[in-house]
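Input (structure):
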Protein backbone atom coordinates (compact mmCIF):
# COMPACT_ATOMS: atom_id res chain seq x y z
CA UNK A 1 0.00 0.00 0.00
CA UNK A 2 1.24 3.45 -0.87
CA UNK A 3 0.37 6.36 1.46
CA UNK A 4 0.53 9.98 0.40
CA UNK A 5 0.78 12.58 3.16
CA UNK A 6 -0.50 16.05 2.30
CA UNK A 7 0.11 19.07 4.49
CA UNK A 8 3.34 17.42 5.56
CA UNK A 9 5.06 20.71 6.40
CA UNK A 10 2.82 21.24 9.44
CA UNK A 11 3.30 19.78 12.91
CA UNK A 12 0.58 17.15 12.51
CA UNK A 13 1.69 16.31 8.99
CA UNK A 14 5.26 15.79 10.10
CA UNK A 15 4.05 13.53 12.90
CA UNK A 16 1.93 11.49 10.50
CA UNK A 17 4.81 11.18 8.05
CA UNK A 18 7.17 10.14 10.82
CA UNK A 19 4.70 7.52 12.09
CA UNK A 20 4.23 6.05 8.62
CA UNK A 21 7.93 5.98 7.79
CA UNK A 22 9.85 5.01 10.91
CA UNK A 23 11.17 1.58 9.92
CA UNK A 24 14.03 1.27 7.47
CA UNK A 25 15.81 -1.29 5.42
CA UNK A 26 18.49 -0.60 2.84
CA UNK A 27 21.02 -2.75 1.10
CA UNK A 28 23.77 -1.29 -1.12
CA UNK A 29 26.27 1.41 -1.77
CA UNK A 30 24.77 7.51 0.31
CA UNK A 31 19.54 15.81 2.14
CA UNK A 32 15.78 18.27 2.04
CA UNK A 33 15.43 21.00 4.56
CA UNK A 34 12.19 19.48 5.92
CA UNK A 35 12.97 15.86 6.79
CA UNK A 36 9.71 14.36 5.62
CA UNK A 37 9.86 11.10 3.73
CA UNK A 38 8.05 11.32 0.43
CA UNK A 39 6.28 8.40 -1.21
CA UNK A 40 5.27 7.83 -4.83
CA UNK A 41 6.73 10.99 -6.28
CA UNK A 42 5.67 13.49 -3.62
CA UNK A 43 8.05 16.45 -3.80
CA UNK A 44 10.01 17.80 -0.82
CA UNK A 45 8.14 20.30 1.32
CA UNK A 46 10.45 23.08 0.14
CA UNK A 47 9.34 22.48 -3.47
CA UNK A 48 5.60 21.95 -2.82
CA UNK A 49 5.06 20.41 -6.24
CA UNK A 50 3.00 17.28 -6.74
CA UNK A 51 4.05 14.68 -9.23
CA UNK A 52 1.48 12.05 -10.20
CA UNK A 53 2.45 8.78 -11.77
CA UNK A 54 0.40 5.63 -12.15
CA UNK A 55 2.55 2.64 -13.06
CA UNK A 56 5.13 4.91 -14.66
CA UNK A 57 2.69 7.06 -16.65
CA UNK A 58 1.41 10.45 -15.57
CA UNK A 59 1.83 14.19 -15.60
CA UNK A 60 5.21 15.67 -14.79
CA UNK A 61 5.37 19.38 -13.86
CA UNK A 62 8.53 20.62 -15.50
CA UNK A 63 10.98 23.46 -15.23
CA UNK A 64 12.70 24.86 -18.29
CA UNK A 65 14.74 21.73 -18.98
CA UNK A 66 14.84 20.87 -22.67
CA UNK A 67 18.02 18.95 -23.51
CA UNK A 68 19.64 16.55 -21.07
CA UNK A 69 23.05 14.92 -21.43
CA UNK A 70 23.45 11.37 -20.15
CA UNK A 71 26.57 9.60 -18.95
CA UNK A 72 26.45 5.81 -18.69
CA UNK A 73 23.56 5.74 -21.14
CA UNK A 74 24.48 2.32 -22.53
CA UNK A 75 24.15 0.43 -19.23
CA UNK A 76 20.93 -1.10 -17.93
CA UNK A 77 20.04 1.87 -15.74
CA UNK A 78 21.31 4.34 -18.32
CA UNK A 79 19.16 2.88 -21.09
CA UNK A 80 16.14 3.25 -18.80
CA UNK A 81 17.08 6.90 -18.15
CA UNK A 82 17.39 7.62 -21.88
CA UNK A 83 14.03 5.95 -22.56
CA UNK A 84 12.33 7.94 -19.78
CA UNK A 85 13.77 11.24 -20.98
CA UNK A 86 12.62 10.54 -24.53
CA UNK A 87 9.20 9.46 -23.28
CA UNK A 88 8.79 12.81 -21.56
CA UNK A 89 9.75 14.71 -24.67
CA UNK A 90 13.29 15.82 -23.85
CA UNK A 91 16.11 16.16 -26.33
CA UNK A 92 18.84 13.79 -25.23
CA UNK A 93 22.60 13.68 -25.78
CA UNK A 94 24.44 10.49 -24.82
CA UNK A 95 28.15 9.91 -24.30
CA UNK A 96 29.12 6.42 -25.45
CA UNK A 97 32.41 4.67 -26.00
CA UNK A 98 30.64 2.47 -28.56
CA UNK A 99 27.50 4.11 -30.01
CA UNK A 100 26.36 0.74 -31.35
CA UNK A 101 25.56 -0.33 -27.78
CA UNK A 102 22.74 2.23 -27.66
CA UNK A 103 20.64 0.06 -29.94
CA UNK A 104 17.47 1.58 -31.39
CA UNK A 105 17.76 4.66 -29.13
CA UNK A 106 20.77 5.86 -31.14
CA UNK A 107 18.44 7.14 -33.84
CA UNK A 108 16.58 9.35 -31.34
CA UNK A 109 19.48 10.96 -29.47
CA UNK A 110 22.57 13.03 -30.17
CA UNK A 111 25.49 10.65 -29.73
CA UNK A 112 28.95 11.77 -28.69
CA UNK A 113 31.67 9.14 -28.85
CA UNK A 114 34.13 9.24 -25.97
CA UNK A 115 35.02 8.52 -22.37
CA UNK A 116 33.44 10.15 -19.32
CA UNK A 117 36.88 11.29 -18.10
CA UNK A 118 37.78 13.03 -21.36
CA UNK A 119 37.26 16.79 -21.04
CA UNK A 120 37.02 17.18 -24.81
CA UNK A 121 34.23 14.63 -25.12
CA UNK A 122 32.43 16.11 -22.10
CA UNK A 123 32.66 19.59 -23.61
CA UNK A 124 31.05 18.37 -26.83
CA UNK A 125 28.41 16.44 -24.91
CA UNK A 126 27.33 19.34 -22.69
CA UNK A 127 27.21 22.03 -25.38
CA UNK A 128 23.74 23.56 -25.23
CA UNK A 129 22.28 21.19 -22.64
CA UNK A 130 20.28 22.22 -19.57
CA UNK A 131 21.26 19.38 -17.24
CA UNK A 132 23.39 16.25 -16.98
CA UNK A 133 22.31 12.86 -15.63
CA UNK A 134 24.88 10.19 -14.82
CA UNK A 135 23.93 6.53 -14.61
CA UNK A 136 27.51 5.28 -14.54
CA UNK A 137 27.70 2.04 -12.62
CA UNK A 138 30.52 0.50 -10.58
CA UNK A 139 33.32 -0.93 -12.70
CA UNK A 140 35.75 -3.28 -10.96
CA UNK A 141 38.51 -2.77 -13.49
CA UNK A 142 38.19 1.04 -13.16
CA UNK A 143 37.95 1.63 -9.41
CA UNK A 144 38.30 5.41 -9.61
CA UNK A 145 35.90 5.96 -12.52
CA UNK A 146 33.37 8.04 -10.63
CA UNK A 147 35.73 10.40 -8.85
CA UNK A 148 37.76 10.85 -12.04
CA UNK A 149 34.61 11.54 -14.04
CA UNK A 150 33.45 14.07 -11.43
CA UNK A 151 36.84 15.80 -11.46
CA UNK A 152 36.70 16.10 -15.25
CA UNK A 153 33.02 17.03 -15.43
CA UNK A 154 32.82 19.81 -12.82
CA UNK A 155 35.08 22.32 -14.63
CA UNK A 156 33.46 21.49 -17.98
CA UNK A 157 30.01 22.24 -16.56
CA UNK A 158 31.23 25.41 -14.90
CA UNK A 159 32.72 26.64 -18.16
CA UNK A 160 29.56 25.73 -20.09
CA UNK A 161 27.30 27.42 -17.55
CA UNK A 162 25.43 24.17 -16.85
CA UNK A 163 24.66 23.98 -13.14
CA UNK A 164 22.30 21.00 -12.78
CA UNK A 165 23.71 17.50 -12.30
CA UNK A 166 21.90 14.38 -11.11
CA UNK A 167 23.80 11.14 -10.56
CA UNK A 168 23.52 7.69 -9.03
CA UNK A 169 25.45 6.85 -5.88
CA UNK A 170 24.53 4.02 -3.49
CA UNK A 171 22.59 3.45 -0.27
CA UNK A 172 25.63 1.98 1.48
CA UNK A 173 27.42 5.32 1.25
CA UNK A 174 27.20 7.70 4.22
CA UNK A 175 27.03 11.48 3.97
CA UNK A 176 26.92 14.20 6.66
CA UNK A 177 23.50 14.53 8.24
CA UNK A 178 22.44 10.91 7.71
CA UNK A 179 20.01 9.43 10.24
CA UNK A 180 20.01 5.84 9.08
CA UNK A 181 18.49 3.03 11.11
CA UNK A 182 20.72 0.85 13.25
CA UNK A 183 20.36 -1.99 10.75
CA UNK A 184 21.33 0.20 7.84
CA UNK A 185 24.30 1.70 9.65
CA UNK A 186 25.57 -1.86 10.08
CA UNK A 187 24.94 -2.66 6.42
CA UNK A 188 26.74 0.51 5.34
CA UNK A 189 29.71 -0.33 7.55
CA UNK A 190 29.95 -3.80 6.02
CA UNK A 191 29.57 -2.48 2.46
CA UNK A 192 32.29 0.08 3.00
CA UNK A 193 34.61 -2.41 4.69
CA UNK A 194 34.17 -5.23 2.18
CA UNK A 195 33.43 -3.30 -1.00
CA UNK A 196 37.01 -2.29 -1.66
CA UNK A 197 38.09 0.44 -4.04
CA UNK A 198 34.86 0.42 -6.07
CA UNK A 199 32.78 1.38 -3.02
CA UNK A 200 35.40 3.90 -1.85
CA UNK A 201 35.02 5.62 -5.22
CA UNK A 202 31.50 6.82 -4.35
CA UNK A 203 32.33 8.94 -1.26
CA UNK A 204 35.23 10.40 -3.24
CA UNK A 205 32.81 11.34 -6.03
CA UNK A 206 30.49 12.96 -3.48
CA UNK A 207 33.37 15.00 -2.10
CA UNK A 208 34.15 16.40 -5.55
CA UNK A 209 30.59 17.57 -6.15
CA UNK A 210 30.15 18.85 -2.57
CA UNK A 211 33.22 21.05 -3.01
CA UNK A 212 31.85 22.55 -6.23
CA UNK A 213 29.29 25.31 -6.76
CA UNK A 214 27.11 23.09 -8.95
CA UNK A 215 23.47 22.32 -8.26
CA UNK A 216 24.08 18.58 -7.85
CA UNK A 217 21.99 15.68 -6.56
CA UNK A 218 23.44 12.21 -5.90
CA UNK A 219 20.67 9.65 -5.53
CA UNK A 220 21.38 6.67 -3.27
CA UNK A 221 19.41 3.54 -4.23
CA UNK A 222 19.66 0.07 -2.66
CA UNK A 223 19.83 -3.11 -4.75
CA UNK A 224 18.70 -2.58 -8.34
CA UNK A 225 16.31 -4.95 -10.08
CA UNK A 226 14.91 -5.28 -13.58
CA UNK A 227 11.28 -5.13 -14.63
CA UNK A 228 8.64 -2.57 -15.62
CA UNK A 229 8.12 0.67 -13.71
CA UNK A 230 5.64 0.52 -10.83
CA UNK A 231 5.45 4.24 -10.07
CA UNK A 232 5.75 3.42 -6.35
CA UNK A 233 8.86 5.12 -5.01
CA UNK A 234 9.82 6.24 -1.52
CA UNK A 235 12.58 8.80 -0.95
CA UNK A 236 14.00 10.79 1.91
CA UNK A 237 16.83 13.25 2.40
CA UNK A 238 18.62 11.49 5.22
CA UNK A 239 16.58 8.62 6.68
CA UNK A 240 16.44 5.00 5.56
CA UNK A 241 13.61 3.95 3.29
CA UNK A 242 11.58 0.88 4.18
CA UNK A 243 12.31 -0.88 0.90
CA UNK A 244 15.52 -2.79 0.22
CA UNK A 245 15.44 -2.63 -3.58
CA UNK A 246 14.24 -0.55 -6.49
CA UNK A 247 13.65 -1.32 -10.14
CA UNK A 248 15.87 0.39 -12.67
CA UNK A 249 12.83 1.81 -14.48
CA UNK A 250 11.54 3.40 -11.26
CA UNK A 251 15.00 4.71 -10.43
CA UNK A 252 15.27 6.20 -13.92
CA UNK A 253 11.91 7.93 -13.48
CA UNK A 254 13.04 9.35 -10.13
CA UNK A 255 16.28 10.66 -11.63
CA UNK A 256 14.30 12.48 -14.31
CA UNK A 257 11.92 13.75 -11.61
CA UNK A 258 14.93 15.23 -9.82
CA UNK A 259 15.89 17.08 -12.99
CA UNK A 260 12.42 18.31 -13.88
CA UNK A 261 11.22 19.07 -10.34
CA UNK A 262 14.58 20.33 -9.11
CA UNK A 263 14.42 17.89 -6.19
CA UNK A 264 17.09 17.65 -3.49
CA UNK A 265 19.57 20.31 -4.67
CA UNK A 266 23.03 19.70 -3.19
CA UNK A 267 21.76 16.66 -1.31
CA UNK A 268 22.08 12.87 -1.56
CA UNK A 269 18.60 11.41 -1.05
CA UNK A 270 17.92 7.78 -0.27
CA UNK A 271 15.37 6.10 -2.53
CA UNK A 272 13.71 2.69 -2.73
CA UNK A 273 10.57 0.99 -3.99
CA UNK A 274 7.65 1.90 -1.73
CA UNK A 275 6.26 -0.95 0.36
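Output (sequence):
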Amino acid sequence: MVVLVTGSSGTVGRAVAAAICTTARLGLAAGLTDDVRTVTGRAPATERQTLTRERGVGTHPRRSVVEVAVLGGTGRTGRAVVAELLRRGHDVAVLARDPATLGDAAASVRVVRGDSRDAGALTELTAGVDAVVSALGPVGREPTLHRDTAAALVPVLQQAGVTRFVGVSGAGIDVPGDRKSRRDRLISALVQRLGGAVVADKPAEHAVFAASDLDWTLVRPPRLTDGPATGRVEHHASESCRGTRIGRADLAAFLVDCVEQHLYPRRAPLVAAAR
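Notes: The CA atoms of residues 223 and 233 lie 14 Å apart. Residues 1-36, 41-60 have pLDDT under 50 and may be disordered.
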